[in-house]
Each structure stands twice: as C-alpha cells, then as structure tokens.
Amino acid sequence: MDEKQRKIKLRLSWFRHFQEKSQNIAKTCRYFGISRYTYYFWLKRYQRNGKTGLYDLSRKPKTSPKTTPPAII
C-alpha cells in the first residue's frame, strides 16, 4: 500500500470511528491526536468530493512572479 492510500485509509478511519464508536468529535480527535480543525477540514472535502477529496493536493505554487526570466538564465 503506497503512502497516498495509507493516508486516505487513515482519514476514513476518523469518520468511521466517530460514527461507530464515539459519536463525539472531540473524543475522536483526541483518540487520533488531531485537531478538530483538521477533522472538519477533511470531512468537508470528503463530503464535497467523496474519496478523491481525501488526497493531498499539490503545494506547488500556481505562479511564481519573482522567478528569474529565462533570458537572464
């Protein structure tokens, strides 16, 4: 299992734990050692995009306005 699949499985386990065991988001977050902000962030993406919303997005900037122009390189 690659790293991406492992992270998705972990994030799904947060939601499953809440539904099946604790019924309490604060307890679920304490159990997994995450913040409630993190829980709600991933829950919102999961609700919006399904399982594909649980993938990490690229952190690469869309633009780099201060890069050196190719003519100078």
Helix content: 55-70%
Separation of termini? Answer: 41 Å
Radius of gyration based on Cα positions: 18 Å
Q: Characterize the biggest β-sheet.
A: none
Beta content comes to: under 5%
What gross morphology would you assign? elongated
Q: Look at the helices and sheets and give the structural class.
A: mainly alpha
Summed over residues and divided by their number, the pLDDT gives a mean of: 93
Oligomer: single chain
Note poorly predicted spans: none
Q: Quick one: how many beta strands?
A: 0
H/E element order: HHH
Number of helices: 3
Attribute tags:
mainly alpha, 73 residues, elongated
Please give a structural write-up.
Helix content is 58%, strand content 0%. The protein has 73 residues and is mostly helical. The chain contains three helices and no strands.
Quick synopsis:
The protein is mainly alpha-helical and 73 residues long. It has 3 helices and no strands.
Draw up the topology in text.
Layout: H1 3-22, H2 25-32, H3 36-49
Helix pairs in contact: 1-2
